[in-house]
């Protein structure tokens, strides 16, 4: 099987797990000597012995099993048991085999491609769907596309919007064919777009989002929250430790726990925003019930009985701006082109590009053996900017610390500066630190340079400019 070119960090670009519409994930666990696999079966490195082909067989089986593991979530649903998922995966896999064989036989005359829109995770659902619709599937002759939901849409309101825009095929008919196509197709030619929206800078647009959300509905909702409907409000997303245990009980989510943060550290920021005339609405569907947190600093919509998929979009559409942690929910304000601040980002992979992102503050990294902060130069040299798994940091002896209340308050003030609400007084030191930081970011090649690092955060963490 052909693998892509290696990036600066030594990683090989290919799709890991379930590759979606525009996704090409950075991954470093691929060997240069991976066996070649084609339509004619597994080919060893010159030997005719079966044992010599065993690594290739194992690779092929692991590839199928990894995709089937995703199909279990596709066909069985996130709340189903292991047995239900396994039965659904096997059924879907065998039902899709004839369709894939038909598509392979028709390839000289008609190319058939199966595209998956991931449903269980909101970030992928919004970003990949927008990538599919806004950039549009290439209008090529002799190419037929079958689009399906890879799992029930986590937001049913957005799922219905997509059904109005696209022909969505049943998963049990198309999902299995999708898996077979992924196994026997070159990774870099699987999709209509190789570049991922996370790497190339987001160009999400809400023009195609045909909804009937209006200000009257918003005013009624805010009044039910005992919030002043005339007062501007800020949407706040904080991904806490409850996400990993409730998002999918059968799947270990500890690998991404470095993206979690605590709501208590955001209280000072919320109080500062209130002093500047803003209400703060905590968003989300899976949040930890922290009885010790002073909820007078914000309205906890995430635990309110009026929380709904529709109201998620209603509140986001009309907010003044948004502040989000390292979560897929960032794509809601990006979809509506709302000014956005990213905080508690557990690695550079979580930094999104695009015109909506205004201010960014990353989590602090420290070497466990010395307690010294990790600099941007060290992040670049060790390819930490590609890390997506908590264990990758742990293997290097790196510990991750979330933003302090003072840093988060600084992000809120920086947003008011950037939006012109406060007068921006940027010193020569601030400019020097920001320039050095952005030079490192450009070398990493992960995001565009439209955003600004939080001025107050960077002053407290100069190592990110070193």
Helices and strands in order:
Elements: E1 12-13, E2 26-27, E3 36-38, E4 41-43, H1 50-76, H2 82-105, E5 111-118, H3 122-134, E6 143-150, H4 156-165, E7 168-169, H5 171-183, H6 197-200, H7 215-224, E8 233-237, H8 242-246, H9 267-275, E9 279-282, E10 299-300, H10 309-317, E11 321-324, H11 331-335, E12 340-345, E13 357-362, E14 364-367, H12 376-381, H13 390-395, E15 398-401, H14 405-418, H15 428-444, E16 452-453, H16 455-460
Parallel strand pairs: 5-6, 6-7, 8-9, 8-11, 9-10, 11-12, 12-13, 13-16
Antiparallel strand pairs: 1-2, 3-4, 14-15
Helix pairs in contact: 1-2, 1-5, 2-5, 9-14
Q: Mind explaining what this structure looks like?
A:
There is one protein chain. By secondary structure, this protein is an alpha/beta fold. It has two domains: 12-197, no CATH class; 215-465. Helices cover 38% and strands 14% of the residues. The chain has helices spanning 50-76, 82-105, 122-134, 156-165, 171-183, 197-200, 215-224, 242-246, 267-275, 309-317, 331-335, 376-381, 390-395, 405-418, 428-444, 455-460; strands spanning 12-13, 26-27, 36-38, 41-43, 111-118, 143-150, 168-169, 233-237, 279-282, 299-300, 321-324, 340-345, 357-362, 364-367, 398-401, 452-453. The strands form five sheets. Strands 10-9-8-11-12-13-16 form a seven-stranded parallel β-sheet. A three-stranded parallel β-sheet has the order 5-6-7, with helices on both faces. It has a two-stranded antiparallel ribbon with strand order 1-2. The protein is globular.
